[in-house]
Amino acid sequence: MSELILHHYPMSPFAEKVRLMLGYKQLPWRSVLIPPVMPKPDVVALTGGYRKTPILQIGADVYCDTALIARVLEARQPNPTLFPAHAPLAVPLAQWADSSLFAAAVSWAMQPAGVAAILGEQPPEVLKAFAADRAAMRAHAPRPTLADATVQLKQHLSGIAAQLQQGGPWLFGTAPSIADFSVGHCLWFIRLARPVAHLLDDYPPIGPWLDRLCAIGHHRSAAMSSTEALAVAAGATAHAPVAVASGLGFEAGQAVTVAATDYGVDPVAGTLVGLSEHESVLRRSDPRAGTLHVHFPRFGFQLRADRA
Ligand SMILES: N[C@@H](CCC(=O)N[C@@H](CS)C(=O)NCC(=O)O)C(=O)O
């Protein structure tokens, strides 16, 4: 079976979500470290334009977005499950955490004292380049101000703490679900911002829960270079994708583009080869990576027929 290749960087919260899910499922993985800012030529060679972190590569299949990556890991190793039957609200809660909670957590963590702890001591031009990259990624849409983020985050933290007091030790009972990993990566990022992490102390059930989540660890990984990852893709054949389901408005073989709808909205163009309620799959080629299938979730992405 082809190896799981995670393209990521250490301080990425969404990458931490996946590293912990790999740990929970005890899946060994290969680790490709990628740049935290553009340009990312080797990432774009695989995705066709999607630039967010992380991506998961399995041979010539490339999976974008952690909501979809979670489903891929679940299919690879169903036990322990990320989607317990008794917790039907785990998926919507995870979506809320990956959007609203994440935005508030980032604004809180990236206040000046937090930035220094997260990015380390950096020359001013590096910090400026990082800020410019993120502003361009958001197409200059405003982030919550610190004042807005503070009230929003406090309300979110109160809700999380109250939910943990319902019984726990996890958000939906006796075992972690996708919701714990999505809430967890946001609060892990606040912890990285050490000088401002004290906010979490005001919500006593959160600390021990986050300790438990982080103690799951990342299981076993071995480094791989991005050049090697491209060679793996070029030497592999992409999996037969899900069929293009009828009644969803598209046909197999159509030229399409897929783009995120929040930030990092660079479109990916290709031929539609798979479509379900959960994912769309585009076939595209790259001179270095060969023929690839790039997979996107349906939530948070716009699929359009390419009329050009
Ligand atoms: N919805 C995406 C969000 C991913 C995301 O926002 N990742 C951040 C890093 S944690 C990012 O891409 N930052 C810009 C970059 O790495 O280039 C997912 O679930 O994977």
Bound molecules: glutathione
- Order of strands in the sheet with most strands: 5-2-1-3-4-9-8-7-6-10
| Estimated helix fraction | 40-55%
The major sheet is characterized as: 10 strands, mixed
Intertermini distance: 38 Å
Low-confidence stretches: none
Computed Rg = 19 Å
Mean pLDDT: 96
Strand content: 15-25%
**Would you report the number of β strands?**
10
Number of helices: 10
The sequence of SSEs as H and E is: EHEHEEHHHHHHHEHEEEEE
What structural class results from the helix and strand content? alpha/beta
Molecular shape = globular
Please explain how this structure is put together:
By secondary structure, the protein is an alpha/beta fold. 41% of the residues lie in helices and 18% in strands. The protein has helices at residues 13-24, 41-47, 66-76, 90-109, 112-119, 124-137, 146-164, 178-192, 206-215, 226-234; strands spanning 5-8, 29-33, 55-58, 61-64, 221-223, 255-260, 268-275, 279-286, 290-297, 301-305. It has a ten-stranded mixed beta sheet with strand order 5-2-1-3-4-9-8-7-6-10, sandwiched between helices. A hairpin with a 7-residue loop joins strand 6 and strand 7. The radius of gyration is 19 Å and the shape is globular. The two termini are 38 Å apart. The mean pLDDT is 96. It binds glutathione. Glutathione (GSH) binds at residues 12-14, 36, 51-53, 65-67, 98, 137, 264, 300.
